[in-house]
Write a structure and sequence with these properties.
The complex is a heterodimer of chains A (about 150) and B (about 160).
Chain A: H1 2-18, H2 23-30, H3 36-58, H4 78-92, H5 96-105, H6 110-126, H7 128-135
Helix pairs in contact in A: 1-5, 5-6
Chain B: H1 11-29, H2 37-46, H3 61-78, H4 91-96, H5 100-121, H6 125-134, H7 138-162
Classes of the chains: A mainly alpha (about 150), B mainly alpha (about 160).
């Protein structure tokens, strides 16, 4: 847990200083006015990919167990969920990590985004069994996947 | 320009940093990067709905991550100037001129879509965009294409049609 905390502080600092938690930077990404965020994501994904592949193949945890990589199969929520999130991201200029980062930076309205995101999560979870069949979501114990 | 008029880091440095953090979390912590499931861990503290009783949410490690992300934001601010609460929201202020109450409603509505959407899709920019794309996972590919498409559409509608 100490490791998770330290890495998350570093992640938050990086999201703040890279512009990934900045309203205007996100708008310029969506408007194709700036290459910055696409470059950032491409370098991030490009370096993470071989690293995760190596970890999955040869990696062991400190206690000697194999490293477990997460799988993300397609399900009924992949497309509609992504579409809804994109509208939310463009409206607020924040994806979930930056909601917390901008809160730390002192942006008051991040509290409203956090409240909305928690309300949305609760709304989704509390109604999961009702919408599960219509949206072809995975069974309840699996959920839509962690991420 | 970012808070305290900082210039953003070069994208290659920031991208390399994100990769280093993702790989360290997986190699040492044996955990897959993903922020939005933390919203469910938060809900699991207060809600009795069976969806929030899933084993995935039991360790609450993502709540520790939430605290770390907030601290990272604080650290970024106090190391570059005085920390002070602000309503400043860049383009939203200069183009839409919303008062505080409308701003709260706007951001709450956007947050609501983000909450429902990320949980329906099973991930956000970190879990699907970085981790899932790096593993070429089909669910992540579909979700990333979907949220980029609807984000591009929304931003263009907002800043090129409604409030140019």
């Amino acid at each position: 847990m100490a490791l998770v905390f330290v890495l998350s502080v570093a992640f938050g600092f990086l999201l703040s200083r890279s512009g990934a938690a900045d309203f205007d930077v996100i708008q310029h990404m969506f408007l194709f006015d700036s290459f910055h965020m696409y470059g950032l994501l491409a370098v991030g994904v490009g370096l993470t990919a071989p690293g995760l592949w190596l970890l999955g193949r040869y990696g062991r945890t400190l206690t000697g167990k194999p490293i477990q990589l997460a799988a993300k199969p397609i399900h009924g929520g992949s497309l509609p969920g992504g579409l809804l999130f994109g509208v939310g991201w463009a409206m607020t200029g924040m994806c979930p990590g930056p909601i917390l980062v901008t809160l730390g930076e002192g942006k008051i309205y991040a509290l409203a985004v956090l409240a909305g995101a928690l309300a949305g999560t609760w709304l989704f979870g509390a109604n999961y069994v009702r919408i599960q069949r219509f949206l072809k979501l995975p069974n309840l114990t699996t959920g839509t996947g962690a991420g | 320009m970012l808070l305290h008029d900082l210039e953003p880091w070069h994208f290659a440095i920031a991208g390399a940093g994100i990769a280093a953090i993702t790989l360290t979390l997986q190699a040492v912590g044996n955990r897959a990067l993903g922020v939005s499931t933390g919203l469910e861990e938060f809900c699991s503290l207060a809600s009795k709905a069976p969806y929030f009783a899933r084993p995935e949410l039991r360790s609450h490690w993502r709540l520790v991550m939430f605290a770390g992300l907030v601290c990272g934001g604080v650290l970024s601010s106090i190391t570059s100037g005085p920390w002070q609460p602000t309503w400043n929201a860049g383009m939203l202020d200069t183009r839409l001129h919303l008062d505080h109450a409308s701003k709260i409603a706007w951001f709450f509505a956007g947050g609501l879509l983000t909450g429902v959407g990320t949980r329906m899709a099973g991930g956000c920019t970190s879990g699907h965009g970085i981790y899932g794309m790096a593993r070429m996972q089909p669910g992540s590919l579909v979700s990333v294409l979907a949220f980029m498409a609807s984000g591009i559409l929304t931003a263009n509608l907002l800043w090129r049609v409604i409030a140019p």
